[in-house]
Design a protein that fits this description.
121 residues, mainly alpha, disordered N terminus
Length: 121
């Protein structure tokens, strides 16, 4: 009888249903990356920041319908790519965190999501 260890569980390709249109969905059994995000306080906090930045980008009044559709596709593609972190094996957490951090920087670089510069006295 074979015993499945952590590395064997990480070798299962992630299902596509962990994407909720913005980031990941913890209520649905998902990929190794999704499960990790939902169980790790730091990664959960990053996910909340990603959701806020994504919503801010979508709310940009200057964003045309085609730009909104492109942003949605881009976000979905990011989630699919991040879900591939299961291939990193023991480096799963580092891969997920790097992917989240990079995507957050991309979203925050968009004009609608930039924080206003502090006013100098």
């Amino acid at each position: 009888m074979a015993v499945l260890g952590t590395s064997a569980a990480l070798a299962i390709p992630p299902p596509p249903d962990s994407f909720d249109g913005e980031t990941i969905r913890c209520q649905v059994a998902g990929s190794a990356a999704t499960v990790l995000i939902c169980r790790d306080a730091e990664l959960t906090a990053l996910d909340r920041q990603l959701r806020q930045a994504f919503r801010a980008a979508l709310a940009d009044p200057a964003l045309q319908a085609s730009g909104r559709a492109a942003l949605l596709r881009e976000q979905e593609q990011w989630v699919v790519a991040m879900d591939q972190c299961w291939r990193a094996g023991e480096q799963l957490r580092a891969c997920v965190k790097a992917s989240q951090s990079q995507r957050l920087r991309q979203l925050q670089a968009r004009p609608a999501t930039r924080q206003p510069a502090p006013v100098q006295p």
